[in-house]
Structures are given as C-alpha cells and as structure tokens.
Amino acid sequence: MKKPTRSPKPERDEQAADTAAEDRLFGRNPIQEALRAGREINKAWVLSGRVERDLYALILQLREAGVPVLEVSRQVLDSMAGTGSHQGIVAQIAAHEYADIEDILTRTPPNGQAPLILILDSINDGYNLGALLRLADTAGISGIVLPKRRSVSLDAFVAKASAGAVEHVPVARVTNLSQTIARLKADGYWVVGTDAAADTAYTEIDWSGKIALIAGSEGGGISPKLLQHCDFLVNIPQYGQVNSLNVAVATGIILFEALRRRGDPA
Asked: Which CATH code, of 3.90.226.10, 3.40.50.1110, 3.30.1330.30, 3.40.1620.10, is assigned to 11-93?
C-alpha cells in the first residue's frame, strides 16, 4: 500500500491563532478521544506539508465526522497550542452543544407565535453571532441554523458575546443550507432573505405563518445560490450617506418588525 503523504486537500488558514485558547485540544490522542466520546469539534488545523500515516488517519476521521480541517504553518500551529508539542494538529471544541435540526423544527417557540427560524449564511464575526444569539433569545424564536463551513462556530468568544443566550437558544449546524431550506419549505415555511438590492421593504410583506429568515455575511450578504431559494427578498430603507448596517442590527430591526406584525399570540 502506498503511504499517504498529504492531508486530503485541507484549506489554508493563517488567521487560526486568533481562536480562543480555552477551546483547544492539541495532540493526536486527546483529539482522537474527543471524537470517540462524541464531543462536538468545530474545526481542526493541521501542519501543512507531509503528514505521517497516523495523523492522516485522524484527519480522515475528522472529515468523516463533518469537521472542517484547515492547513496552517508551523508558526501558527505553535502559537495556537502554546507549545511545539502538538504533534501537527490542533482542534477547537464547541463551547456549547449544537442542536439537531429536528430539535429546532419540533420545538414550541418560547414566544407562543408561529415558528420563526433564523438562518445565518457565512457569518464570520464572533461578536455578531453572539449579538444574534441575544436577539434570538430576546425575541423567543425557535432557533438558529449555521453552515458547518464558512461560518464562525460556538467558541468561547461567541459564548461570552452572547451574554448567556447560547445556553437558551438552540443552534444547529448543517452540511448543506440549500437542502435544509428545501426541507423547511416542504414543512410549510416561507423563506425570507435580506438583501440591500431588494425592491421590497421589510415592512411590506406578510410575516404570518412559519418563517425562515436568512441573514447574510458581513461583507458579501446572502450567497447567490441561497438567494434563489428565497420566497421574498427584503431590504431596510436607509437615508444616510453610508448605507451599511451591522448584520446583527439589521437582523434585529427586521426580526422585531416581524414579531410586531404577528401580534400578541394570546
């Protein structure tokens, strides 16, 4: 058998050292045991270049578990682990357990209204995710859905930024947002996307019934692929010289308008 010499095409990530240190495991055995114990692993980083057979096997296991594996330099990996004795791999453990999408779909909304789910497309700022968790808790919505890739995870920084809301709002991670949206539509949800270029203001649509509200990334908004799945696209009219709202602020404006329009569930 030919010995593998490289990890299975990991992405490069030279900003990995910014992740919260208290969430990290390093070394092959601790990460292997975390996998066996069923711990939620947000992401793993491996040393770029040639890898040994044991490390390659661990990378494959992480991939099979749906964990994004990124390739970094030795300098970054040493900085993340705080030591050079990391055996070529560091992993980030979730600060809180993720929910299953089924848990969110079957959950009775805390506010007593029809279900409202928040889908976040490629949110990369931990403070914004923490703020969105606080909004979701305050509004009493059913839960939040994140993609497994190209999104900030429930790390220690997000947990702190959420001011405790992470303990009360179910957050599911899914492999494919498009498939999840199709599932929601089949279950009777209307899908509303936020888009600065939309022709319809957020105050002009019917917010009754089951709603899945999609908010896009801080820089690029909702991906073109997901925009195609939306039943409605809405914008927030802006009148200043700088027409840009933070994603958490914009989502909060739309979310509470939706709740107001739905009225008192009692």
From this structure: 3.30.1330.30
